[in-house]
């Protein structure tokens, strides 16, 4: 089995917020064969977490018991599968797939450029941007189970909705997917993608440590509008701060801890609930244990 196995590896090195305690084991495979061998070697009772770019993820300061597998840099195959289909492995950056689709004269994939993560992460949460959602274009997915076995499953095997996907029993992660897009007959796909990227750069704290959107948008409203209306744009707890550019983004500085981020998330939820009567639901996945005193 090839790849890199690190013990007590700080996950702050592998998450976009740059906070988080150590993983008992952190493994980066070189191939899907390595991945399968590692997964099958772990006890059935051991928690296994998969991460890509570490966006949309908050790792608590006490770290993660079990194994964390980093797929970015390992599963990166991206190719055409016929005239209108793209095959992408889980470690492919979403922005890379968007540009690949545009170069292939396909429409409907440009929104992936606005997702700050990998294909695997986008599949796991039905990530979206600019009105598009990942599972709208999925044809079928390759998944891995706890015994290391891989299997292709049709889109119909999954239940999904806004920022939510339900997994089949014993599945631990996505290995690859086949996406189907329309042909770019109008020739607008590249222009649309560039416009979305320019808007993202102008309205979001691109280049600063964040996890993307912190909260799901409630029906008929926007989390950013609610937070700003409550007066908390720029609000800070420790090293975590609500972005002054986009209120649904929390950014961190070098002094930040995961506890700061989690406390700020809880504070915003409580205040918006009290002032507006709306319960904000986090879009961010939280794993691990708090730091013990």
UniProtKB/TrEMBL annotation:
An example Gene Ontology CC term for this record: cytosol
**Single Gene Ontology BP term?**
cell wall organization
Pathway(s) it belongs to: Cell wall biogenesis; peptidoglycan biosynthesis
InterPro entries membership:
FAD-bd_PCMH (IPR016166), FAD-bd_PCMH-like_sf (IPR036318), FAD-bd_PCMH_sub1 (IPR016167), FAD-bd_PCMH_sub2 (IPR016169), MurB (IPR003170), MurB_C (IPR011601), MurB_C_sf (IPR036635), Oxid_FAD_bind_N (IPR006094)
Q: Which cofactor does it need?
A: FAD
Q: Which residues form the FAD-binding PCMH-type domain?
A: 19-206
Pfam families with a match to the protein in the record: FAD_binding_4 (PF01565), MurB_C (PF02873)
Q: Might you give the EC number(s) for this enzyme?
A: 1.3.1.98
Enumerate the catalysed reactions. Answer: UDP-N-acetyl-alpha-D-muramate + NADP(+) = UDP-N-acetyl-3-O-(1-carboxyvinyl)-alpha-D-glucosamine + NADPH + H(+)
Function of this protein?
Cell wall formation.
HAMAP family, per database record: MurB
Q: Identify this protein by name.
A: UDP-N-acetylenolpyruvoylglucosamine reductase
Give the organism, scientific name.
Stenotrophobium rhamnosiphilum
